[in-house]
User: What shape does this take?
Amino acid sequence: MTSMAQPLIPDISTETVSALREQYRASEARAARLSLLLEAGRDLAFADATTLPTVLNRSARRAALFAGFKDGQVVHGPANGLALIAPGGDSRRVGTLVLEDSGSPGRLTDEEDRGALDLLARLMAAAIDRVERARERDELLDKLQTRERELEQLVGKLFTSQEDERRRVAHDLHDSVAQTATALFRRLDALKAAGSMPEAEALAGIAHSLVGELRSVIAGLRPTVLDDLGISAAISALADSLRQDGYEIHFRQAGPDKWPPVIETAFFRVAQEALSNIRKHAGGDCRIDLTLSGEPEKARWQLVVRDYGKGLSKSPATPSAAGERIGLEVMRERMMVLGGKLIVTNHVKGGVEVRALLESAAVR
Assistant: This one.
């Protein structure tokens, strides 16, 4: 009989098998390090103030299992363990990674294992530092917003008090001084007609001028037309006054004639100040375009005052520039109180556009 051929078995030495086993173990160790860092790093990267404690505890337990310890936790404050140092040059300690021994020593004898654990500690420290800074930033922002709201309320109360005082003074002037001046004018006018006083004609002229000035002051303090007929009629009255002085006025109004009182007052004062600036700084009679629009359903209100005068002063040192600047700041503050804004454009071809805009207002 012919003997059967035996299969060829490679002659693998004991050293080769040992080397393969070592490579396998090294490969498993690298995979464990990579898994640890990837999973923990992902969780830490997306952690916020709410989820950070849970993520830190989970990462600490992963670190403990990786290092052969029973359990792990992050302690905020002095403790024995691996220090968690925040990024930066100040070496600020933000916590400690504490690994609880199971009774047998951990297996962190490999340098690469220690490096992986150290990298995980840096990731944990960076997450803590990021969340703490975000919390501090949010707290500061909340404080700033609170102070801004308090300031807006204070300025709003000041403007409201100012308007109330204007209304009271206008009422007092109308009911007392203006009535007295009118009576004086009528008496002097009667004396002039009777010819009983040589100076009666001159005095009647003075009294008539006084009555006109008082009425102008009363209208400027608090125009009754604003309370009675609304913003559109009040600004039309301002436009008529300028028209009588030779200005070419084009007034266009869209939307309701009556606005919420607090908005009416602010926009009327802006129009009043803008037209006053035109009288003082535009360089004489010019064309003025006035546009007033209100969209209550969208909580959007807008006033545009565009003149075709000489424009804003170039030199801030001139008295006119100082007056313009103060007037613009007054208008801007009135809009800021309501949460609106004032946009001022100095056109190259001459003239200034003042745009007061209020959107999404919480109107009471």
Remarks:
- The mean pLDDT is 80.
- DSSP finds eight helices and eight strands in the chain.
- The CA atoms of residues 241 and 322 lie 25 Å apart.
